[in-house]
User: Fold this.
Amino acid sequence: MSTEESDILFKLVAEKYGDRLTPEELEEVKKGVERITEAAEALRKVKTDNWDEPFTVFKPYTKEE
Amino acid sequence: MNVAPDHVFTPIRELGEKIRTGKTSPVDLAETFLDRLERLGPRYNSVVTVTKERALEQARKAEREIERGDYRGPLHGVPYGAKDLLATSGGIPTTWGAAPYRNQTFDQDATVVRKLEEAGAVLAAKLAMIELAGGGGYRQPNASFTGPPRNPWNPDYWTGGSSSGSGAAVAGGFVPFAIGSETWGSILSPANNCGVAGLRPTYGRVSRHGAMALCWTLDKLGPLCLTADDCGLVLEAIAGPDPRDPSTTDRIFTYYADAPTKGFKLAVLTGVTNDVDEEVLANFEKSLKILEKVATIEKIELPDLPYEAITRTILNAESASAFEELIESGRTSELTAPEDHYGLYARTVVLAKDYLKALRLRAVMAKAADEAMSGYDAVVAPARRSPATPVDEEFRRTSPGTAKDLMGAVGNGAGLPSVAVPNGFTGGGLPTGIQFMGRAYSENAILAVARAYQSMTDWHKRHPPGL
Assistant:
């Protein structure tokens, strides 16, 4: 699951930016994507409740007159 | 005319008193530190720009004001250096430590620079830093267009980063204090490696307006000084709400330098010394013995959560957005460290749902940390897991995100303050440090503990030989 997802995401990066990177650099990017998906897997394993909000408060804006 | 050498390595509190009582003058001090910045700064790759003209102008103004009795406080007439990610007007470059931005200028000062000017401090230099504050995922000291930052205690070793010049300039006596920034480790790391005090304030305590953004919800600005007491003095000057930075808190910070010096309750997180360098561990254990004279120390545990994954995912997602223009331009290839050429690309594929999950778990983490720390003045830990590493070696064999850093992940992820002070040396003469991390907005509590520790030790009174 994680490897498959990581491969797909890496292909996306390689498709978009691969022409600027050497094969060695692309290999490092692949490892970077793997670490990102591993971290995501760790997050997904933690159960949250529906009402657990992101810890970022959005405040509607109006310029003070 | 230069002042006596003993004005170098003099804490702000004493320096300010000498200025106030006319025992030294702001212009003399500015000339002394400008000379050291110009003469010694390049040896350690710690300076990007010496702001001589602006410094002398500010120093003359301070001198006139003090002579006519208009004394602003302990920073009045005291020179300082700013990490080169803080915008400065007047044609002074703000390079972010990165070659693609080496000629970048702004037409305004960062709020911190403005607030320090209002306090009468004298901007003497823009200090070297790791390119993009480490945003590219660097693994080696040679990651600044100004060269690898060298440690005043031993130039063959690294200063730590990303506020590298800020740490080195204070440790080397090139400035009495400096401003650094921390997203994850960038104030505590140079404080540890260079043997100075470094304060990471609570997130939102200090305005980031005019500072390079690496990660909007993790970036903090704070001081590096000779003592914890000095950190309190500087924080009071730079803290406060700012309409130009919506993250700033309305809570006013007033520094209580006369807080109690004993009767503290301290905690050590279980597992926080696992895999720590032997000499760092030995110095930490000696520090705990000293602290037992003024504190009770208990072990506490945090609930099982993926702390590193939470903070790392937030950092990855936000940095990919903050540097979107640089990534799309392909100019990362102009960065100094080879790993910074490609480090940002992987971060462009963090999924939105995972970033949001990290933000949701950040709330869980913040509540868990606050609950665990409730009733304690500070959580104590080594400032870093190891002392400075050689300047020509990778300081991490693995890429960011693979090493455990519980204090860094929780402290930065939950926006908690922490102050690091020196607590000894290795056999090779490199400093080690201890950190005191507190609950949100508890800077006075952690500074009181750090001051008490420094009143019982003299590590902060030792300075690099030959400087």
